[in-house]
Design goal:
heterodimer, A: 9-stranded mixed beta sheet, two-stranded antiparallel sheet, 13 strands, B: 326 residues, alpha/beta, Rossmann fold, 9-stranded mixed beta sheet, 5-stranded parallel beta sheet, 27% helix
């Protein structure tokens, strides 16, 4: 079974974000990066499927400037077999459709049995690149997957629905799945893995991004910190019990919630 | 020429999803600003569903019908909605940003050579000028204003709580039509949906939520928060660490990996307010935060704050609430 896993490099979760002068994007100069959380679980699931079903290949694919090589090398060290790096400086500005289109071009020839990716990115948070990619490749998909059974001719996947509901789907192969965070324990790279990764192939692909930028259908005009709309009333002045009594009264008379 | 606002109303088991009415409120606002009619689309043959939507201020309710739409699949819904959108030729297609919409709508938009403007929190369309969609990026830390170029339709989804469902305008006189559609091959077969936890609560429907975080310290202390929730007639919920620790089941988790709620009252006890939690509850009407740390980010979005020990607050608040309720 050949599995492609799409992984994105995103700003570190704890990074202090600053907005650039033009208010068009964040200052990237001194930012630290990490792998998008759910993509890490997509890789782990890919590696487990390969181990469970006796071999095949896990190909990691990442898009972005040269710095995304750190995500790729880390994935190779954890056990991915080879990589495709879709090189582009400004890929974060791509609309989800354009991003999916570029990725489709990069991986179409691989004829993978399975394509896995995280359910959404922690930066743009579009939550759609995977689904659009499936449509462009002409394969069925399932989103927010928390369990994959690949033993049979067809896949069986468990999807998370809202409000504590779940559902199993049987789905034809090849297919694309978007993986939820937290579904397994992610392995660490071993020293042996890190050494082995150095010999693994990273193929660079250079897409024609300019043409896509011209065809953008959604455009970010400005970014800003969310406005603080609330004025907090602090109650009790340090005395929690007094605060609690005041609060009960205010909830009754001001907020009228009970 | 493209005209009108199409709203996709999502249903399951014969009832609309609450966020469908929020999306309807968004569509009505957009329609009023642009002076364009709002048309609701329901993928069902259930006349009662169509009737319910027809009780709102919309010009038309279209029941999109095919035997292949009896249960949700992304292939089926995409085929059906593609035909509805092509036939109705709207300028905007508005949808709630639910798991179901996330599952099929990007595929639908891709059929039109585009993506969604997804998970929007605001809409600005004053005086018929350019329509601006605002969405949160970087896990809610930053807002981005988005405009659209190119051809209709524009597909946009709205985050749960971005609009209030009870502000969707009622009306009468909507024209009701049915639209049979041809649905192609369905490449996935769903099994019945199920719940893993018995008596699982749908916190999205709760009016009052009392939520606990790390500050609760131990499983044995949860009863105190439970007592407060009961006094207020509300439900107990938690931030992720509490559910990860197994102190409360996962279906009580609020936040990006749990449920997104917007109750009338949300009381956050010992929750610092990491963004992953805030995105799940920030649209609550009234937010109360109790935390020892005066710098805790939860206070940024709180209407009422108490800086102090939750173990002092919980029993007093519970008693006072009971007293006031009589």
């Amino acid at each position: 079974m050949k599995i492609i896993v799409l992984m994105k490099q995103v700003a570190n979760k704890d990074a202090i974000l600053r907005i650039n002068k033009e208010a068009t994007w964040i200052e990237e100069g001194d930012l630290s990066y990490e792998v998008n959380e759910s993509d890490g679980y997509a890789l782990e699931e890919s590696l487990r499927l390969k181990e469970k079903h006796g071999g095949g290949e896990v190909v990691v694919c990442s898009m972005g400037p040269q710095r995304v090589k750190s995500v790729i090398k880390d994935a190779l060290a954890r056990g991915a077999d080879r990589a495709i790096h879709v090189v582009g400086d400004d890929t974060l500005r791509l609309s989800p459709f354009a991003a999916a289109w570029v990725l489709a071009e990069a991986i179409r020839g691989e004829q993978a049995d399975l394509i896995l990716t995280g359910l959404q990115s922690d930066d743009n948070g579009y939550a759609q690149t995977g689904v659009i990619l499936a449509e462009l490749l002409g394969v069925p998909h399932a989103t927010i997957v928390i369990e994959v059974d690949a033993a049979g001719e067809q896949l069986r996947v468990k999807r998370e629905l809202e409000s504590g509901w779940y559902q199993w789907y049987t789905i034809q192969k090849p297919a694309l799945l978007t993986i939820q965070s937290g579904i397994s324990q992610i392995r660490y790279a071993t020293l042996k893995g890190i050494m082995a990764a150095k010999k693994k192939e990273i193929k660079e692909v250079q897409p024609a991004l300019e043409a896509l930028a011209a065809a953008a259908h959604q455009r970010v005009t400005k970014i800003y910190f969310p406005l603080k709309t609330k004025q907090t009333q602090f109650l009790g002045d340090g005395d929690a019990k007094v605060g609690a009594a005041l609060l009960a009264e205010k909830l009754r008379t001001e907020a009228r919630v009970f | 020429m493209s005209n009108g606002i199409l709203i996709f109303a999502e249903h399951r088991d014969g009832a609309f999803n609450k966020t469908s009415f929020e999306a309807l409120a968004a569509a009505q606002q957009l329609g009023a600003s642009l002076n364009q009619p709002v048309v609701a689309v329901v993928l069902s043959t259930d006349a009662a569903l169509a009737q319910e939507i027809a009780g709102y201020d919309v010009s038309k309710v279209i029941s999109v019908e095919s035997p292949k739409l009896n249960e949700y699949t992304p292939d089926g819904y995409t085929d059906a909605m593609e035909q509805a959108v092509r036939a109705l030729d709207p300028q905007y297609v508005i949808m709630p940003h639910t798991y179901l919409v996330r599952d099929y709508a990007p595929k639908l938009a891709a059929r039109f050579g585009k993506g969604l403007i997804s998970d929007c929190v605001r809409l600005t369309a004053e005086g018929g000028s350019e329509v601006v969609f605002s969405r949160r990026i970087f896990l809610g830390k930053i807002d981005a204003d988005v405009v659209t170029d190119g051809e209709s339709p524009v597909f946009a989804t709205f985050q749960s709580g971005a609009f209030r469902g009870d502000q969707a305008k009622r009306g009468a006189g909507a024209v009701m039509e049915s639209m049979p559609v041809e649905v192609g091959e369905i490449r996935m077969q769903p099994e019945p949906a199920f719940q893993e936890v018995k008596q699982a609560v749908d916190l999205t429907k709760a009016n009052v939520i009392v939520a606990i975080g790390r500050g609760i310290k131990g499983e044995e202390n949860i009863a105190q928060a439970q007592a407060l929730a009961e006094a207020l007639g509300g439900d107990l919920a938690a931030s992720r660490p509490i559910c990860d620790a197994g102190w409360l089941p996962i279906d009580r988790q609020i936040g990006s990996s749990g449920q997104t709620v917007a109750p009338k009252l949300y009381i956050a006890l010992g929750i610092s307010g990491a963004i992953q939690h805030l995105v799940g509850m920030k649209n609550s009407d009234t937010i109360v935060a109790v935390n020892k740390d005066p710098e805790a980010p939860i206070f940024d979005i709180a209407d009422y704050g108490i800086v102090g020990d939750i173990f002092e607050v919980m029993p007093v608040l519970t008693e006072e609430v009971k007293k006031l309720k009589g």
